[in-house]
TrEMBL record, chains A, B:
Gene3D superfamilies reported in the protein's UniProt record: 1.25.40.420, Potassium Channel Kv1.1, Chain A
InterPro entries: BTB/POZ_dom, SKP1/BTB/POZ_sf
SMART domains attached to this UniProt entry: BTB
The name this protein goes by in its record: BTB domain-containing protein
Coiled-coil boundaries: 18-49
Domain of life: Eukaryota
PANTHER family: SPECKLE-TYPE POZ PROTEIN
Gene source species: Spirodela intermedia
Keyword annotations: Coiled coil
A Pfam family recorded for this sequence: BTB
The BTB domain, residue ranges: 65-140
Pathway field: Protein modification; protein ubiquitination
Amino acid sequence: MWCHSCREEYEDVDAGTCKECYEEASETEEELKREIEDLKAKVSFLRLCSPIDPHLPASPSAATADISLHTWSSGSDCVVYAPIPAHKAVLMSRSPVFKAMLESEMEESQSGTIKIADVSYTVLQTFIHYLYTAEALLDEQMACDLLVLAERYQVKHLKVFCEKFMISKVNGETAVMSFAFAHRHNAGMLLETALALILDNMSMLTAREEYRELVEKDPRLVVEIYEAYLTRQVNTAPRE
Amino acid sequence: MWCHSCREEYEDVDAGTCKECYEEASETEEELKREIEDLKAKVSFLRLCSPIDPHLPASPSAATADISLHTWSSGSDCVVYAPIPAHKAVLMSRSPVFKAMLESEMEESQSGTIKIADVSYTVLQTFIHYLYTAEALLDEQMACDLLVLAERYQVKHLKVFCEKFMISKVNGETAVMSFAFAHRHNAGMLLETALALILDNMSMLTAREEYRELVEKDPRLVVEIYEAYLTRQVNTAPRE
């Protein structure tokens, strides 16, 4: 017989689907692709012109801004950066924390200024840009920093975005650090991935420097690793 | 042989794809579905809280509005409606016409008021709601009215949305009116669909009232119909 997809001959044992199902599947694929096109157009329509683009100079959207964000460090050396302009309506739509802050009589809604503590200027720029566009260029460090901000301001979509990126990067070397990070910031999917990687390489665990650090700083997390390991061993042991 | 999809037996002549291609196709479908989920999440993140929902009372987003829109009729009987609050940043992101209007020194940017002529209050509400959410409940009349506004303010995404809806509704009865409407408002896809329907029912054309009206009001459009009919006849005539 001839395959309708690859046009090669196939044997009885390699039989896949009948003609009818094959045609249905092709139609489904076409439909899904059309839906993707529609959704992409919707995303592009809904993206807002960002008041600050980390990769571009001044944006026209800044002219209508009604609030400004400042980075603010609890450390001693104080570098002053230009405030980042933004729109209350956008911040409130994206984050329930900003919404509560700006709807109330809190200092921020009165002064038109929001101070964001302990975050670098570049990270804050990228954060604000994401709230307008749902886009950010990530590397490992930026993904960590943005995830922390996303958790603080309850921007779920950004948190998932960063978490997925971190999951794609985690490996045997970085699993212990990722596990601890995921624990601190309630990143459930990353936690699972990192833990699975640690359990797959248990023989090397105690030799790692990060392991020793974790024992010092947060021994309860180390206990969690051993507990998971024990559970897995019990569950996979041959029955007698 | 047994089909891997429907589990029914099939004959050689009904052979579809081989096992390998079938498995690849299933993977593709899964991938496409995941992409759709991601895009839907992005759309839901990017939707803004609308300052006016035609189906809901007061919105919190109205509190931060910095511009208001008024309907304004060139007719004589004047009903005054509450202005519709909106945000310059959103209008400017969605429409190049609003952008030019609000960036310039035109009256609108000075007064914080935009007058929209010859449109009903409900249509204007639905229009503004769409600019924030990319969502609108359409019926035939609303689709026409919104398409006109979308063309006037160059909101391409909304124009396509209305046009697709109108294409799904056009039939032999309404084709002449849709053809004339599509012509007036540069709706290419609708024009093609309506014209094809007219050509399929040419024998009934001259009996229709809308046809007689069109001959009166815009005979050049009627000529276009006949020209298309002639071209089709020439192209499908059997060669001698």
